[in-house]
Amino acid sequence: MLKLLRPAMTRILTPLGRALAARGIGPNVVTAIGTIGTVVCALLFLPLGQLSWGALLITVFVLFDLLDGLVARLGGKGGSTWGAFLDSTLDRVADAAIFCGLILYFISKHDTLMAAVTLAGLVAGALVSYAKARAEGLGLTCDVGLAERPERLVVALVATFFAGLGVPYVLPAGMWLLAIAGAITVVQRVVHVHGQTRQAGER
């Protein structure tokens, strides 16, 4: 579903991307702004319990993940291998900030169990990304799994937003879902890579 929505979001953001490119603002700058904004909002609003505002503002900055690619294609400076590496690395920083903000929120509520579940979701998400990066570094494919980054972000931000509106149990349910789905995705990717190595005659 998210892959189907991406073209529509790209069309919406194209005028802004064209304006930034025309002013010489490169994609790496856009990536950095998006990450800094996400980190600040996640660590400022979420621990204080401002969940809806935090989720909304983080969503705005997460859209920079689409915008940096647009700026690169429309002539902005910095579209390069370095830019791709920077984008992937800063994505991990942004993800970690969101989950850390939620962990601090649960700690402030003395909810040790949900803090641990959210931490498990953070670790699982990091392993999902690492498994793909390591596999591709070895010349293999690893674009499989139940919960990739866009799905994880949507679940986390939607659950956080509605929790801020007072919807009961939605945030714990979202964190449990992310922890379980992340663990399943790690296993799926390990199995997928193992299958490829077996086909190549390796053990």
UniProtKB/TrEMBL annotation:
Catalytic residues at 91
What is the cofactor note? Contains a di-nuclear catalytic Mg(2+) center.
The way it spans or sits in the membrane comes to: Multi-pass membrane protein
Annotated a CDP-1,2-diacyl-sn-glycerol binding lies at 28-31, 69, 73, 80
Q: Where is this protein primarily located?
A: membrane
- Enzyme class label: transferase
Q: Where would you find the membrane-spanning parts of this chain?
A: 20-45, 51-72, 113-131, 152-170, 176-195
Describe the protein's quaternary organization and the partners it interacts with: Homodimer.
Name-wise, this protein is Phosphatidylinositol phosphate synthase
